[in-house]
Design goal:
two-stranded antiparallel sheet; mainly alpha; 4% strand; 6 helices; 114 residues; 2 strands
Amino acid sequence: MIESRAKVWLSVPALPGNRRVALPVAVVIFSLLTALGAQVAVPLGVTPVPMTLQTLFVLLAGALLGPVAGATSQLLYLALGALGVPVFAMGGAGAPWILGTTGGYLMAFPMAAA
């Protein structure tokens, strides 16, 4: 059963052409789309966690790329933010942002995309 499921994910029609090139490019693209979605943030006022478009791109990454590549795209997104690139909501970056109030949401992104 697991083998047949893996074959289905490896034949995702959303990636035309050479998969050795297309899949890593798609991983980077979805990581960047998640970063762009974070910049569209609406502060709710009642909670320190803003509403963003990140969730859309996280779920699309998993749906279109499959569980491994989808999770990889989100791990790349988190790595960029941890390294100080301002990719999180409202321009946040670094370990304090990951360990802050939105950290739990951010750490769940790879699991949500899988």
